[in-house]
């Protein structure tokens, strides 16, 4: 779509175009075929119910900014969105508070540490570092408009549903499993409180955050949500605007720097796109101006990122010419399997 607010300037939000429909379709299928045999990584078990996930599930979906959908494998199997919710709650809160306030309140820099690090807060004088790790995500959820936690939850639920273009459902089993075991997130919220960095009851914020992580999505949903960010904030399937183009730009910058936690640098080096992972095995990637990619495969690397999701996305980034630092499509890295 055309997207500019500079007077006299009309240009597309990014460079280049995707290959033709059939070529994208066959490359999406190939991203699955090439990586389906990989058994590397392990299913998350620190949230007890996640340990029951079927490790063989593997789905990939690409949604183009014109609304075209390419699916392969288990792209319609649902799982809890987990940390990928952080990207969309951040976008919703950015819409309210704007660029400068969000940089000040939540930060944008990588911690270089695990997603649930406590020491990252201490090392930064009690300030959260960025909204894609738990401390910054809790601070962001606390900023969500709403007079009470249930109003905040309603706004998050309807906002993430607008990104997906359908009414997303809360997975009560996942929510309860995490709610009774999330002592670490409660500690992080209390620590933020001690530094005056969380403006609401910390345990109520953790509860809303746990609910946002428990929304059920599929790889197809993630691709549509990503395509909405790729399309400057307009959901290409429903045609409805969800957030502004400025908010998409800020969200994608934060994802590029922080979306895969302490492996974000390696991800940007290999894949060259903003992305966000979740411990259920979901992986969202955005090619600005072109497409959203959703992948799902529950086995994770040590940082909590889906192994086959990364492999399939790396392959697509290369062969579809999506890497924002590359001037043309390039060959897959056979030695790494993608
Ligand atoms: O806060 C947690 O621990 C989970 N609800 C989400 C963590 C997560 O998805 C980290 N991702 N890779």
Automatic annotation (TrEMBL):
Annotated catalysed reactions: L-glutamine + H2O = L-glutamate + NH4(+)
EC number(s) reported in the record: 3.5.1.2
The UniProt record lists the keyword Acetylation: yes
GO biological process, any: glutamate biosynthetic process
Positions contributing to substrate binding: 83, 134, 178, 185, 209, 261, 279
Coiled-coil spans in chain: none
Record-stated family: Belongs to the glutaminase family.
Complexes and interactors: Homotetramer.
The protein, known as: Glutaminase
Species: Paenarthrobacter aurescens (strain TC1)
Lineage per the UniProt record: Bacteria, Bacillati, Actinomycetota, Actinomycetes, Micrococcales
UniProt gene name: glsA
């Amino acid at each position: 779509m055309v997207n500019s607010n500079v007077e006299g300037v009309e240009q597309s939000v990014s460079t280049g175009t995707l290959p033709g429909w059939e070529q994208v379709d066959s490359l999406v299928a190939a991203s699955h075929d090439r990586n389906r045999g990989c058994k590397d990584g392990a299913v998350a078990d620190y949230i007890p119910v996640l340990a029951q996930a079927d490790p063989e599930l593997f789905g990939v979906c690409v949604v183009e900014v014109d609304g075209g959908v390419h699916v392969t494998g288990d792209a319609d199997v649902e799982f809890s969105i987990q940390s990928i919710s952080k990207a969309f709650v951040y976008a919703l809160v950015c819409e309210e508070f704007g660029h400068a306030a969000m940089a000040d309140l939540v930060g944008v820099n990588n911690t270089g540490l695990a997603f649930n690090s406590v020491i990252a807060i201490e090392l930064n004088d009690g300030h959260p570092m960025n909204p894609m790790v738990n401390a910054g995500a809790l601070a962001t959820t606390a900023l969500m408009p709403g007079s009470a936690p249930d109003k905040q939850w309603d706004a998050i639920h309807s906002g993430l549903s607008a990104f997906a273009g359908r009414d997303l459902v809360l997975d009560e089993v996942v929510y309860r499993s995490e709610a009774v075991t999330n002592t670490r997130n409660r500690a992080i919220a209390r620590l933020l409180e001690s530094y005056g960095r969380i403006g609401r009851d910390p345990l109520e914020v953790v509860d809303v955050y746990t609910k946002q992580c428990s929304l059920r999505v599929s790889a197809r949903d993630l691709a549509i949500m990503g395509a909405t960010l790729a399309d400057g904030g307009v959901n290409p399937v429903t045609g409805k605007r969800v957030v502004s183009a400025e908010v998409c730009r800020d969200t994608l910058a934060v994802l590029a720097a922080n979306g895969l936690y302490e492996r974000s640098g390696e991800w940007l080096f290999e894949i060259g796109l903003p992305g966000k992972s979740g411990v259920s095995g979901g992986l969202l990637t955005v090619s600005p101006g072109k497409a959203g990619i959703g992948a799902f495969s529950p086995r994770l690397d040590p940082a909590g990122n889906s192994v086959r999701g990364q492999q399939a996305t790396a392959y697509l980034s290369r062969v579809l010419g999506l890497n924002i630092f590359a001037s043309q499509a390039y060959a897959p890295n056979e030695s790494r399997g993608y």
